[in-house]
Amino acid sequence: MRAFKSSVLAAMLGLVVAACSQNQALLTLESVPTKATVEVTLEQVSAAIIEAGAGRGWSMTEVEPGLIRGEILVRGKHKVAVNIPFTTTTFSILYLSSENMNYQLRDGEPRIHPKYNSWIKNLERDIQNRIKLL
Fold it and tell me: pTM, whole model, 2 decimals?
């Protein structure tokens, strides 16, 4: 019985270690140049960001001119919030907070579930596509 308990404990510890090791470095996009083909206004960039986020299920709120907060809740339990500061020529997507995304600092480096990075890359691509349509 003791050997069984040790085996179960070792298996559980292995699963925890495996789950933690799958986290990736947190993707931060700063001052990404927009791919606008014409001169655009701050209002047009704001609308493009809001539309891009909404298309992916993000709730986008304009905090002030040049700053949008995006939040997404996936399957009712994975929550992410980002700040999106922007100008007429650049935008950034900056991590603000998360729930159930395994966020942690490891050796001073922020790490998170790989899905976060995927969601951020998709959001960036959709923002760029919306801005190109202006």
Answer: 0.84
